[in-house]
Alpha-glucoside transport system permease protein (Streptomyces olivoverticillatus), 447 residues
Amino acid sequence: MTTATAPPPPAAPRAKRKGVLGTRPWVAACFLLPALLLLGALVVYPIGYSVYRSLFDASGNGFAGLDNYHEVFTDDRIRTALKNNVIWVIVAPALATALGLIFAVLTERVCWGTAFKLVVFMPMAISMLAAGIIFRLVYEQNPDRGVANAVWVGIHDTFAQPAPFPGAHPRPTGDLAAADGGSFATKSAVRAGSPVALPLVAVKPEDVAGAKEAIPAREVAGKVTGTVWMDFTRGGGGTAGKIDAGERALAGVKIEAVKDGRTVASATSDSDGTFTLPSAADGARLRLPASNFASVYNGVEWLGPALVTPSIIGAYIWMWAGFAMVLIAAGLAGVPRELLEAARVDGANEWQVFRRVTVPLLAPVLAVVVVTLMINVLKIFDLVYIIAPGSSLHNANVLALQLYQSSFGTDVNQGVGSAIAVFLLLLVLPVVFVNIRRIRKEREGRR
């Protein structure tokens, strides 16, 4: 006997498939469409057009192939820009991150740490243009205007005695003549018992303000005497090479007696301009060393060809060290204190705790800061354009600035400018890929 089986129930209608976000794909596409259109208009199209334009000549009508890219690697200006970009990428992110790490760690336990972080972070509120103007004044060559040289000159003058009469020199027709190294020497040998006249001109009025009147030196048996003075009379008149009434003494001038190329005696002029040399100076020639007349020290040429790039990097670090400090401080707040205390209990000192525990735990945050700053410095333009003077702009050149000059400068060639833009994009891509891989590894580690 067979039993009849019941027919299977009708299949339920299949629900429409939803995406990973819990909604239908076409609904997600509608919401994403405006963003995709903006992305295409503002990112994809400019990149594509730059690649296309880089294959044409300056007029945009003649196909140039890879000639523009060949010029990128052969033009001296662009090669200098590339070299400077390499310096920027290596130095600026490393120094800014290191300073940020030091500031974040040192201010973690002090009561005024928040105020200090606020001051360090404050330059981030200033635009690159304003920061460039500020540091253009900071690096001014004149110590009366430039803060950097004012400090540097103050330190220099603390340890080095300035010249008493910078720029002074003898009359061309006198007995003093130019010697080696900027010094001045008598044309003939001097004799004991016969006073020597050493007149100088071109002395700055402020250098003899309050100086005594010069007096003729007295004859001293067996010794060489003389007078150093400013051979100039106000209102004209007077006799050249002779001490006239009202002419000022030059105190503090060093005089050396030289025989056969050796200094046998030396003296310094007194407040009345007179000096006395021992008998060893008899028959020698008198020399006034160049140290008496050296130009006033005006500091370092911060914006000269040699230091312009390091100086601009210093301005960049001033702005972005606060950014690195804030991110690192946020990461430091999440470091488990138990690990730090355990390391101290095991006998580690503070330096070992910092190097072996704190820095490894902060490695993901440090990587974020370094990668962000590397991408930022590859695009650096404002600071270089504002701070570097025209005479040093070639030495401070970077790719972004060269892109602007090639595309819109005096020698316009947008084909070369587009090639530089594409090359700059290719330089940024590896850094972006490294950042993406790091983010993916962090996500996989959290699962």
Observations:
- Residues 391 and 422 are 28 Å apart (CA to CA).
- The first strand starts at residue 176 and ends at 178.
